[in-house]
Structures are given as C-alpha cells and as structure tokens.
C-alpha cells in the first residue's frame, strides 16, 4: 500500500518536472526580452544589452539555463524578474492569495457539489433534479469571465438595493484600509465572497453532475436493498451504504477537477484584481518573463501533483478493492 | 447442545397459531410510458409458522414485486393496494421508520445476485454485525455483535469464520457471499425469510450447498420461508406448499405433492413438461409453451393464459377464472375453467405421479417425439470425424503491474484435453464456471494452431490452414452464442442479420433472397419477420434468429455456447426441440456447451465433464448419467434438483465442500482431490496415489472413460 503511494508520488514528481521544463523551454524559445529592450527609443547602449543578456543567462543553451534555474529553485532562489527583482519577494504573498481562493473554492465546491448531486439523484426527474441539471449545464458551458462579470453585476445590484457596499469585488482588501483586527477580517470577507463564488459555481456544477450519476448507479443497487432489508431506514442506508460507495469515483475526479479550478482561478484573479499566481502568469507572459512563467508553472504543477496524490490516497482509503 | 441451539430460540412453542404472513388481494402497479403496468393483480396467500412456500413462475410474472411489497421495499412510484398482514399486523401504510423495525428482525430477505448484494466497502463481518446492532440498540455491544457474526458465518459453513469475517465481499466467491447473506438474514432469528431466487446465479454444486444452508437456517430459526424460483426442480424437495404465478396472479396453489402430481391448470402442466430431466431414462419430448406472457399494461379480457393455452375455448375469453378449489381437496386451488377435465385425463393414468403428469402434458400440448438423424444408425466409429481435438492446451499468463507488466504465474485454462465429434452427433461439455468450457470453444472457433496439441475440423488440421482454406472451414463450422441480444446488431433488420454470413462468403443476391424465407421457416419464424428489428423479438425468437444465421451457410458443425441458459424454461423447451429437429433434418453435429446437465442429458449423445481444465469423464450420455464413475460427475449429478417432490425428498445429496481451486495453482496429482469425498474416505496409503499421481483417462465401460484411480459406478439420480 505505502509502496504503491510512494511509487505514484515519484511518478508525479517526474511529471511536474517535465511540465515545468516544457513551460520553461517554450517560454525561452518564444519570449524575446532583448528584442523588447532594443525597440526602446532611444535604444539602450550595446553594453547594457549584453549585460542584460548575461543576467538573463540568454547566452547559455536552454537546457543549461533550465538546470541553472532549477539549481536555484532547489536552494529556494527562483531567479530574477526582467525588472531585476527577486521572484521570491512576491512568490509567498501571491501563492498565499491563490491558495486561499483555491482551497476555499475546492472545499466548498466539493461539499456542495456532492450534496447537490445526491439530492438530484434521490429526487430524480423531480423539479429539484431538473433545476440542478439545468444549472450545471449552464454553468459548465459559460466561460468563467462571463460568470464573473454576471456575478459582479448581481453583486452591484444587491449593493444598490441595500444602499451600501456590502459585497466588494475589486482587490483583496480596501487599499489603505486601517482599523481593528476584526474590521480587517470583515473587509477581507467582503472582498472574498464574489470571487470565491465564481470558483465554487463551476466546481459545484462539475462535481454534482458526476456525483448524480454515481449515486444513480448505486440507488438501483442490490446492496442498498440488502441494507434496508436488514433494518436500516432508507435514509440511513442511502448515506451509510449508498453515498459511501458512490464517493469512490469522486476521488479520481478530484485530480481533474483541480485543472478546471486553476483555469477558472487565473481568470477570476484577473477580473477581481487579486494579485495571485494566475494574475502573475498573465503578467509574466505579457512582460515576456521566462522566470515568472516557469515559476508559476512549477507552482501549478506542484498543486496538481499534490491533488493527484491526494486523489490516490483518497481512492485507496475509500475503496478496499484496490488496497494491495 | 449445538452451536445453533445456543444462537437461536428453540423453534415452535409460540402461542400464536395464525399464519405469520397473510397477503390478501395485493395489487401493485407502476407507471410506464405505455400505461400502468399491473405487475401484481389481486394476489392472496398465507404462510404458516415454519412452513416453506415455493413461488414459481416465469420472468415478469410478479414474483419479485410481490415479495418486495411485503418487505416494503418497492420503489416510490409503485402504487400498492390490498392487505399484507404480518403476525396479524397490517404492513401496508406503515412508515419507513416503522417498517425498518420489522425488516431484518422479524422478516428478512435473501436476494438473487449474491455478487452485488453486499456493500463493497465494508467487511462481511461488519455488515452482519450492523444488522444485529440496528435492532439491538443499547442491548447489544459492538463486541457481542462481532462475536455473534463470526458464529453466524460459522453456522452457514464459512470455514475459518473468525478470519474470514474481516474480509471484504470481493474476497468471497459467489457461493460464500450468498452464505453470508443468509447469515445476515437469520441474524436476528426472524419469523419469516423471503428468498428471491437465492440460487439462480450459482453453479449447481454451489446451489446444492446454499439450499442446504437455507434448510439449516429454517431448522434453527423455525421461520416460515417463502422461496421464489423459476425452476420447479429447486423447490420440489424443499417446499411444503407451492404457488404458481402467471401474469401477476396466482393460477394454482396447493401442497407440493398435489401440484406436481395432479396439476390442474394447463400452465402448470406445461411448466412441468417443459423441464428437461436429468433422471429421464428414455428421451421424452419437451413441452414448449408457445408465445409469450401477455403485456401487463392492458390485459385482454378473460384468462390471461388463453393465447398460449392448448385447451382454450371461447368461454375462456369472457371472464378471468378465479382461483377455485379442485376435487374438494380443501387445499388445492386452480384458476382454470377446465381444470376438472384435466382431472379426468389424469384419472386414466393408473396412479398419480409426476411422470404421469408429464405424459398428460405431452398429450395436452400435443408434442411429438423427434426422430434420430439417418446417420445415427451407422455405428459411431464408422462415421466421419467432424471435429478432432487432441491434447489441446491453452494457458494465460497472470501478470502484475500496470506499466511494466511482469509475469507472476500461469492460468492453465485448458490443460490437455482430447475428444472427437462424429457426424450427426452432439457432444455436450459440462462443468462449473471457470472449468475451461468457454476457453475450449474459443480455441476451436479461432482456427489457430493451439499452444500445444492439435485441432482438426472435418479432417483438416488447423495448423496447416492458409487464408483460403480457413475461410472454407469457417463456412462449415458456425456458432450460436448465449446472449441472443448481444450477438445481434440492433439496427439491422433480421433479414440482413441472416444474410450477412452469406454475403461474406460471396453468395449472390438472388440466392440470398431466396434462402432467407427458407431459413426463417426452418427455425419456426415467419417470412414477414425479415423486415423487423431484433428489439421486436422475444428472447426465444432472438435465439432462433441466431440459429437461422448460423445455419445460413449449411454448416456441418454448429458450436453452441450456453444457447438456452438465458431463456425461461418454457421458452427454452421450444429452442431445444428446434435444435433437436434441425439435427435430425439436416444431419448436423453439435458441440454444445452448457452448465445445465439436464439440458445436456436431453440433447446430447455424448457428454464430456470438465474440471479445472481437464476432462474427468467422457462417454455416452446414458452410460455417464446412469452410472457415473468419477466422483466429480457423481457430485454434479447429485446436485441437480429433480422436479419431483417424492423422489427429491428421498434423494441423498453429495455436497461438495469448498470452492473451485485457482486454475493458476491446481492441486498436485488428481486436481479434484481437494474436494473429493471419495478421496477423503480412503485410507492414507490409498490417498497418497491421488496426491502424487495424476489419474489417466481409462476406459470403464463401452464408450465411457473416466480419470480416477478409484473409479467405481454409483447411481445418483
Ligand atoms: N420499478 C418498476 N417499474 C416499472 N415496472 C416494474 C418495476 N419493477 C417491476 N416491474 C414490472 O413488473 C412486472 C413483474 O416483475 P417481477 O420482477 O415481479 O417479475 P418476476 O416474476 O420476479 O420475474 P423474474 O423471474 O425475471 O425475476 C414486470 O412486467 C416488470 O417489468
Ligand atoms: S381457463 Fe381456458 S385458457 Fe385459461 S388455462 Fe383454463 S383452459 Fe386454458
Ligand atoms: S483420483 Fe482420488 S482424488 Fe481423484 S477423483 Fe479419484 S479418488 Fe478422488
Ligand atoms: Mg424476480
């Protein structure tokens, strides 16, 4: 068992390295920071350009650059941005912002998604089921930025009807906010609601669809009947035997759901001006900054790695049939 | 004091004398797209304490629905009316909470499919303990429940119960799971156990074990039992009373002996006559009940059986006959306006017996004896060899790992088997699931050189075949599969389905067009059926389509893989008769794989019994069935229930212990020795031979070989 999980972990680490290397290579090949520099008016002197090229290690072949960069990463140094600032300076704060959004989004998303899926399945073909189905399809087929914009508009009209700005949707905190510790927390919460909701909606839609079909499979199953036949009430049998078994396929979905989350997160951060990792990635690409791009990719790869591995652990914990 | 006595209250002794279960005028219907399905229409029956009631009927007759109604486990869209009284208390209308206090404690149920009846994520022991805990809140501790569940597992014959209780359901074989479910059902010493086809999904040997366990369960709990089945054999020796259901109603009920010996409703009669008998001395024709059960959405007026009844008269179409007493017996009821006339036919037979009833069935349904093919008159060894298999071996590697597979063992699926089939002859291959029957078939059908040994079809060694000659051989050897639906393309009209093999073999269009109606007629379908789609046909008709398709190219050898096991008995009889007829008419040879030995006895001329990839006994059916030499064959045969209550009660069963060993790691010497009762009874000096030396196949009688060191004939049926 432990051996199995360890082997999987090694697999994931290799995959994360490969993904980062590819992103690094792609960025190095396509980005042309020197060209940007040269096009300045008036063009900077040749010595400056050479110095920059050396700073950015552009005089080395790409694999060597990657090794140099990775060597730094292992020691906790992610290199410099184009603007010559150490990446580590921003990394911690930005990662914190993103993780807050992601973790809250995924926890709420899975919990609500599973619940909605179960209710949908139990009340198949009733109004609540149709409602959940339509909701999921609409959400899943709408691009994140549209959802975000709609939520913004909705929040605005709520604010208007209340007559004060309860729901805030620009930035993470009110700039220059000063107040007590409690007031600061409330301020953060006010900023958090709409962006988190954006993420949660698509997660709920995604998980509820799968949970519904997994639960439907289980609803017709013989073992659920056996559980009732031995004296469990329907409700108890549904939760203790039905839901427990229907959760197994969810574990595998977890790893994929994370990808969806990151894509959604990137847009969400931008739209709500949260300066997290997603926002940074876009900045990095705009500035043709290889180190930022590679760092964010590595971050995402590590997140996917952890979620994938968690999914394995979860799967093994949920399903005795694969415990080896 | 036995373990059972300490576990259960002694049976009987209770003061209530009334029935445990009293169902009256029960009706259940479901909404469907084409209207309301009247699944149960006014069913009444009673079960007395300690009584075993058998409910028999074909698929869709409402057996399961009526028993789920008793348990209160019908889906919410079901509409239910009438009354279900359990120990005098009305169950209809009780809430789920109230019912859950009765379920599992007073009434418990065993379902058909043991493989899916247990929750995969909890251990078997925990699931049994849960049943004890829900009803013993505050009284039963977790430890006590765990201990009791081990005792229960032990009682139902799970070896090493304390250890096995910690196993998950997937680590149990089908038979063991069904035992566990029975353990669960008797955990709280119920007063009524409902078993819905508890053995249908199991091999005969396991079926015999499970029935035995069910009997033990009945003895120790003293509970009334309702056992549902579609197989008249299963309940013959077990039930006290029988109820036959048709189209959602009881059409005949009575004491088992009465109903089997003097059936008074043509449907019961037909059912009885449709069963192939493993104990048949001479070949009796089977009674097929033509047609299909009526649609339960809008039943026509009158007797629902009328469209299929050979005795139907105009009066049958006016009103539905009620269940009424026959012969003033006080106990035997039938729903037929002509039941008295049936009684009169019987009186002609000197003594009531099941055999006499079967003769009456043959007479009433007008079946004829099917002749033998012309070639059968030529002695066997002078006839052409159609298929010759010598020392054939097929092994599968057992691998481990997902990305880098490594071989960790070998499954010896077929381990050196030898047999031949002559012209106009049927060889039946039987054995428990996993013994290598299907592998054997697939190897032969593949027409590729086997791993070891040789296969020759119509004198041609398959390893010497090239592309063209392989195609020619394929033409002479056709196959019919078990599941008629899966082997037919749902979007093809059946005319095209039948034409397909002819097109592949380049037969011209005109000839194909001429041949299709001929083929349809040959298998008992009509010419106009050619334009219809498979979904419009019943299971039996689909199997006929499969047969027509196999016959399209006029093959010499037809390979049949469990061709009737998915069909109801009454339908099965028609297909078996058809196969028999075709063989006589066209001089075909069959290789017939089945797990049902009675079907094989009926249709085959010779039989090969397989165990763990080897043929342990082979020879003429009559010789093998009437004096089996190998202990395994003896056990198999003795496990088969006979639809005759009196014979059945007098029979002594050889119950095989344990499950089939893994074919990846078969026992040394004789492969059967781990389950062999003869081996177990031998003195140690004789046993060592079984352990060390693999028994060779030796001639025991003319055309009868068996592979056992201590083979001796024994009559078991
Ligand atoms: N949930 C349901 N919804 C609609 N129709 C149903 C439902 N359950 C059963 N039926 C119908 O009720 C009728 C009786 O079914 P039932 O399962 O009781 O038959 P059965 O005698 O147990 O058959 P089998 O031998 O195949 O188990 C069938 O026509 C079936 O299609
Ligand atoms: S009532 Fe008529 S149709 Fe029905 S079983 Fe009797 S004879 Fe046949
Ligand atoms: S050889 Fe021995 S173990 Fe094998 S069947 Fe005969 S008696 Fe049993
Ligand atoms: Mg049923």
From TrEMBL, chain A:
Residue ranges of every copy of the ABC transmembrane type-1 domain listed in the record: 95-311
Keyword tags: Cell membrane, Membrane, Transmembrane, Transmembrane helix, Transport
InterPro entries in UniProt: BPD_transp_1_N, MetI-like, MetI-like_sf
Keyword presence, Cell wall biogenesis/degradation: no
Main location: membrane
One GO cellular component, as annotated: plasma membrane
Membrane topology, record value: Multi-pass membrane protein
Bilayer-spanning residue ranges: 12-31, 101-124, 130-151, 245-267, 296-318
Gene3D superfamilies: MetI-like
The keyword rRNA processing is annotated on this UniProt entry: no
Short name of one Pfam family: BPD_transp_1
Coiled coil: none
Cellular localisation: Cell membrane
PANTHER family in the cross-refs: DIPEPTIDE TRANSPORT SYSTEM PERMEASE PROTEIN DPPB-RELATED
Descriptive protein name: ABC transporter permease
UniProtKB/TrEMBL annotation, chain B:
Residue ranges annotated for the ABC transporter domain, each copy included: 21-272, 387-637
Keyword Transport: yes
SUPFAM superfamilies: P-loop containing nucleoside triphosphate hydrolases
Lineage: superkingdom: Bacteria
Pfam families: ABC_tran (PF00005), oligo_HPY (PF08352)
GO biological process, one term: transmembrane transport
UniProt-recorded Gene Ontology molecular function terms: ATP binding; ATP hydrolysis activity
NCBIfam families xref list: oligo_HPY (TIGR01727), PRK10419.1 (NF007739), PRK11308.1 (NF008453)
Name assigned to this protein: ABC transporter ATP-binding protein
């Amino acid at each position: 068992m432990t051996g199995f999980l360890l082997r999987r972990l090694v697999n994931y680490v290799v995959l994360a390295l490969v993904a980062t290397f590819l992103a690094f290579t792609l960025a190095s090949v396509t980005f042309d920071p020197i060209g940007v520099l040269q096009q300045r008016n008036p063009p900077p002197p040749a010595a400056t350009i050479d110095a920059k090229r050396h700073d950015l290690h552009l005089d080395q072949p790409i694999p060597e650059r990657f090794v140099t960069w990775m060597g730094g990463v292992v020691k906790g140094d992610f290199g410099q941005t184009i603007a010559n600032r150490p990446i580590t300076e921003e990394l911690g704060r930005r990662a914190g912002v993103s993780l807050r959004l992601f973790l809250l989004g995924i926890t709420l998303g899975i919990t609500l998604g599973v619940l909605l899926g179960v209710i949908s399945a139990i009340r198949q073909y009733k109004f609540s089921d149709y409602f959940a189905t339509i909701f999921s399809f609409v959400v899943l087929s709408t691009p994140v930025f549209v959802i975000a914009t709609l939520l913004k508009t909705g929040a605005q009209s709520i604010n208007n009807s209340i007559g004060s700005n309860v729901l805030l949707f620009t930035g993470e905190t009110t700039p220059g906010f000063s107040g007590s510790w409690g007031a600061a927390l409330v301020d953060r919460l006010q900023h958090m609601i709409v962006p988190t909701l954006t993420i949660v909606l698509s997660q709920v839609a995604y998980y509820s669809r799968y949970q519904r079909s997994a639960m439907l499979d289980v609803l017709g199953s013989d073992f659920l009947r056996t559980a009732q036949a031995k004296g469990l009430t329907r409700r108890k049998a549904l939760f203790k035997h039905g839901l427990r078994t229907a959760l197994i396929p969810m574990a595998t979905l977890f790893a994929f759901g994370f990808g969806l989350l990151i894509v959604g997160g990137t847009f969400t951060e931008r739209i709500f001006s949260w300066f997290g990792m997603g926002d940074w990635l876009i900045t990095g690409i705009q500035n043709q900054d290889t180190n930022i791009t590679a760092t964010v990719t590595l971050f995402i790869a590590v997140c996917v790695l952890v979620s994938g591995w968690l999914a394995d652990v979860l799967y093994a914990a949920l399903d005795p049939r694969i415990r080896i | 004091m036995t373990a059972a006595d300490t576990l259960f209250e002694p049976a009987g002794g209770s003061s209530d004398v009334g029935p445990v279960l009293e169902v009256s005028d029960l009706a259940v219907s479901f909404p469907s797209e084409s209207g309301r399905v009247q699944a149960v229409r006014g069913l009444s029956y009673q079960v007395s304490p300690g009584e075993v009631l058998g409910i028999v009927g074909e698929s869709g007759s409402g057996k399961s629905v009526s028993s789920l109604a008793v348990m209160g486990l019908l889906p919410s869209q079901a509409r239910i009316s009438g009354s279900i009284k359990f120990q005098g208390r009305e169950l209809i209308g009780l809430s789920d909470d109230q019912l859950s206090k009765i379920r599992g404690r007073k009434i418990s149920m065993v379902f058909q499919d043991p493989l899916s009846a247990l929750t995969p994520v909890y251990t078997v022991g925990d699931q049994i303990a849960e049943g004890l805990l829900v009803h013993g809140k505050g009284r039963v501790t977790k430890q006590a429940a765990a201990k009791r569940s081990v005792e229960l597992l032990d009682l139902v014959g799970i070896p090493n119960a304390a250890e096995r209780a910690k196993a998950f359901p997937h680590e149990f074989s089908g038979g063991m799971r069904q035992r566990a479910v029975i353990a669960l059902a008797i955990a709280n010493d119920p007063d009524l156990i409902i078993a819905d086809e508890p053995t249908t999904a199991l091999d005969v040997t396991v079926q015999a074990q499970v029935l035995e366990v069910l009997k033990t369960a009945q003895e120790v709990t003293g509970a009334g039992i309702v056992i549902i089945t579609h197989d008249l054999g299963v309940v013959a020796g077990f039930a006290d009373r029988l109820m036959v259901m048709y189209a959602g109603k009881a059409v005949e009920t009575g004491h088992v002996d009465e109903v089997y010996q003097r059936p008074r409703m043509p449907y019961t009669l037909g059912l009885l006559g449709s069963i192939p008998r493993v104990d048949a001395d001479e070949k009796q024709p089977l009674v097929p009940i033509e047609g299909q059960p009526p649609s339960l959405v809008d039943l026509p007026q009158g007797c629902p059986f009328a469209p299929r009844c050979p005795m139907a008269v105009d009066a049958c179409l006016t009103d539905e006959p009620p269940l009424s007493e026959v012969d003033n017996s006080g106990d035997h009821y039938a729903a037929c306006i002509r039941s008295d006339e049936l009684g009169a036919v019987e009186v002609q037979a000197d003594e009531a017996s099941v055999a006499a009833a079967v003769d009456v069935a043959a007479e009433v349904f007008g079946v004829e004896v099917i002749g033998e093919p012309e070639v059968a008159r030529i002695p066997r060894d002078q006839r052409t060899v159609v298929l010759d298999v010598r020392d054939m071996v097929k092994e599968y590697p057992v691998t481990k790992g997902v990305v880098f597979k490594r071989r960790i063992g070998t499954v010896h699926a077929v381990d050196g088997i030898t047999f031949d089939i002559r012209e106009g002859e049927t060889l039946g291959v039987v054995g428990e699931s996993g013994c290598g029957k299907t592998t054997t078939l697939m190897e032969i059908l593949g027409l590729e050189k086997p791993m070891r040994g040789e296969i020759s079809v119509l004198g041609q060694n398959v390893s010497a075949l090239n592309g063209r000659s392989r195609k020619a051989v394929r033409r002479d050897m056709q196959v019919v599969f078990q599941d008629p639906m899966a082997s037919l393309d749902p979007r093809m009209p059946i005319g095209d389905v039948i034409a397909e093999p002819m097109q592949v073999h380049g037969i011209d269009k005109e000839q194909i067009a001429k041949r299709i109606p001929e083929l349809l007629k040959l298998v008992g379908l009509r010419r106009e059926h050619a334009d219809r789609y498979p979904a419009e046909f019943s299971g039996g008709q689909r199997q006929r389509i499969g047969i027509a398709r196999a016959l399209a190219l006029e093959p010499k050898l037809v390979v049949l893989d469990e061709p009737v096991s998915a069909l109801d008995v009454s339908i099965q009889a028609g297909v078996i008769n058809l196969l028999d007829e075709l063989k006589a008419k066209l001089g075909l040879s069959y290789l017939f794989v089945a797990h049902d030995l009675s079907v094989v006895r009926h249709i085959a001329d010779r039989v090969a019994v397989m165990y763990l990839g080897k043929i342990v006994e082979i020879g003429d059916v009559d010789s093998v069935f009437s004096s089996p030499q190998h202990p395994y064959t003896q056990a198999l045969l003795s496990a088969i229930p006979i639809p005759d209550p009196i014979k059945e009660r007098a029979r002594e069963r050889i119950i095989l212990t344990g499950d089939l060993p893994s074919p990846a790691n078969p026992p040394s010497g004789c492969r059967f020795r781990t389950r062999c009762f003869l081996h177990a009874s031998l003195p140690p000096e004789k046993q060592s031979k079984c352990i060390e030396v693999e028994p060779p196949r030796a001639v025991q009688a003319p055309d009868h070989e068996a592979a056992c060191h201590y083979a001796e004939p024994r009559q078991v049926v």
